[in-house]
Every structure is written in C-alpha cells, then in structure tokens.
Amino acid sequence: MSDWSEPVGTFYGATLRARLVVLRGHTPGDASDLLQTMVYVELQNLGLSPTEVYFDAEHGHDFRPEYKGGLDCELSDAHGKPVPQSPSAFSGGCPSTCWITLQYDSTVRLRANCYGIRGPKEGGLVIPAPGRYWFLKAGDTNNYFLSATFTTDPPTNRSPRLSITNMHVWSGTLTIPKTKIVMRP
User: Fold this and answer.
1) From the DSSP assignment, how many helices (H) and strands (E) are in the chain?
2) Any residues with CB less than 8 A from the CB of 178 and at least 6 apart, and which?
3) Contact (Cβ atoms closer than 8 angstroms) between residue 170 and residue 123
4) Are 69 and 148 spatial neighbours (Cβ–Cβ below 8 Å)?
5) Which of 21, 52, 77, 133 is 20 to 30 A from 146 in CA distance terms?
6) The 70-77 sheet, strands edge to edge
7) What is the per-residue pLDDT for 35?
C-alpha cells in the first residue's frame, strides 16, 4: 500500500487524496488455484461536502487524446528506471467507467485493473495496470516500485461547480507516491 498523495482541491472546495493498494489473492467467486494481482485506487474525500468523481478504469494509459483520465501506473526499479512492459494477452472483464459519490469524511476502494489476470503456475508476479502489464520472474530479488497518477476529466454534461445532484464534482490529477512491490514465493 502506498502513502497517501498530497490533497488536491478544486476552486469549489472539493478536495481528494488517493493511494494505491496492490494485493495478491482471489476475488469473490474465484475458484482458480492461481492468484490474481489486484490493483486498487483508494480515494478519500477531505472536503466538507459530498463529492462526485468520474472514475475511468478503462483508459488509464491510453494514447488516444479523447481519453484523458484514469489511473496511469509506472513500474520502476530501485534506481528509478522504468521497467519494460512484458508481452501479454488476456480475455476477461475490466471495471467499467462510472460516477462515484464520496460522502463527507469517507474513503472508497475501487478496482483499477482487469479481472482474472494470473501469473503462471511456475510462479512469478504479474502486475497488470490499466493499459500496462509487467511480469516479474520467480526468484527475482530486485526491488521494484509502482507509482501512479490518477486523473479525472469529467464529461461536460455535469457542471464542475455543482452537479445535478447538488454535490461537488472533483476534477484534477493526484500524484500517488510509489509503493514497494514485494515478491513472495
């Protein structure tokens, strides 16, 4: 789990911070013997009123200019150098884009990567992130760190000042501190 990002507020008082949570395990209903790597983003409302956030889980690292939001992750080594991505293919579902309402003084954990992506039986660690994929081989003793930015650029059909439900709409970018990726056998 990373540390919390610095809070970012809007002109209208909506203030959020975020952190990454990376877990290995099984999701509800998962009967596989192989473990998934699950990447979550936690958002915390530090403002004084309910806040709406547009969560785009589908386009975190997307080269197309019409997709400006989402969680964009980067894996780096102990020297701060980016780790090359691994080839990948999968067939499975991904979290959908949606509006999230954070009540005053609340925190929500949102799945940020696709479901059912597992490593091989031989071991190792798969790190799937929106639009990115890394594989660390079993026995790798190097230190790795995952960092991210969370950006939301809400659709223009909701006012950035007050939404149709009279809640603040947050937009902006949160820079999430790096978290160490721990390799376990």
Assistant:
1) 0, 12
2) 2, 76, 145, 146, 147
3) no
4) no
5) 52
6) 70-77, 144-152, 172-181
7) 81
| Model pTM score | 0.86
How far CA 61 is from CA of 94, 150, 152, in Å, comes to 14, 10, 13
Q: Rg (Cα) of the chain, in Å, rounded?
A: 17
**CA-angle at 71, arms to 137 and 106, nearest 5°:** 115
Interatomic CA distance for residues 19 and 13, integer angstroms: 20
**Tokens at residue 42, please?**
């936690």
- The 3-state secondary structure of 14-77, one letter per residue: CEEEEEEEEEEECCCCCCCCCCEEEEEEEEEECCCCCEEEEECCCCCCCCCCCCCCEEEEEEEE
- What are the average pLDDT values for consecutive 10-residue runs of the chain, which has 185 residues? 93 89 84 84 93 80 64 93 85 82 94 82 83 88 93 72 61 94 75
Residues in the chain, total: 185
- CA dihedral (96, 54, 176, 174) in degrees, to 10, reads 160
CB 60 within 8 A of CB 131: yes
Q: Is the dihedral of CA 20, 21, 22, 27 positive or negative?
A: negative
